[in-house]
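Input structure tokens:
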């Protein structure tokens, strides 16, 4: 999927354009979180990342801290919730 994307034998690119209630995602109206329950990070053999794109332009979302992805190598620096889950904001 997309420019420089790996093929299906190498990678998987799940995406969503709606929230848990089925409403279209709209970062101008809502703040969103993504929570991985304790012990349930993405089931991969190597690497995972979460990247947020603008649904219309397909470009990365501009943000004040210039962070365009969160990935598995960052895990050691992430603070988990008291129950061991991990929430991305």
């Amino acid at each position: 999927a997309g420019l420089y994307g790996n093929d299906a034998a190498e990678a998987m690119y799940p995406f969503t354009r709606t929230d848990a209630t089925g409403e279209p995602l709209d970062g101008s109206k809502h703040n969103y979180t993504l929570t991985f329950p304790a012990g349930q990070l993405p089931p991969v053999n190597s690497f995972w990342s979460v990247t947020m794109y603008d649904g219309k332009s397909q470009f990365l979302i501009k943000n004040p801290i210039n962070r365009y992805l969160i990935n598995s190598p960052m895990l050691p620096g992430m603070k988990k919730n008291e129950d061991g889950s991990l929430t991305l904001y």
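The chain has one domain: 1-89. The longest strand covers residues 34-36.
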